Amino acid sequence: TSAYPREPVPLKELRDATATHPRYFFAVDPDASQLLAMLLKLINAKKAIEIGVFTGYSLLTTALAIPNSGKIIAIDVNRETYEIGLPFIQKADVEHKIKFIQSPALLILNELLQDEENEGSFDFAFVDADKNNYWNYHEKLMKLVRPGGLLIYANTLWGGTVCWPEEAVPEGKRERRKDVMEFNRLISADHHIELVLASIVDGLSICRWIF
Hints:
By secondary structure, the protein is an alpha/beta fold.
């Protein structure tokens, strides 16, 4: 009654195009997308970084929410899935805001940090990628995102399994569950951030850089 009727047309078209992909469930859902868009607008974000793009639903969300002069660095190891969403990004006339880089993200983050001008220059970061590297990403993004900026991590409930007894967790989810639980433990102890774990979708850890 609220999320789907308010979904922008370009995002609905991209969601429909993604629905036939075998890993369609990787995409951010409309309710989470609308939360991201609101947060971007609340902090007046102009420069963002996204790790893990898939077909680009969250990327297009960000591109639509930031000003016309805004910029997004989007990093993913798979350009093929990004190409699925590219026509919808182009149709929405926001491709000029996006710099897509096909690469392991840590390499690019390290490259960005080699230039001191990049430190504290980003307003917003969204991470939906390899869970075993979440803390590594966090350490580097905390240098790239400005104080008062937001860092958001997806899937931090890992299907709810983070609060299940281990023997109840399907074998295929156990290794990444441990990675997610360790990341949750580490950011919970990070005194540089304010933290909210939203139970929306599969868990969004919303971090505000306070100092």
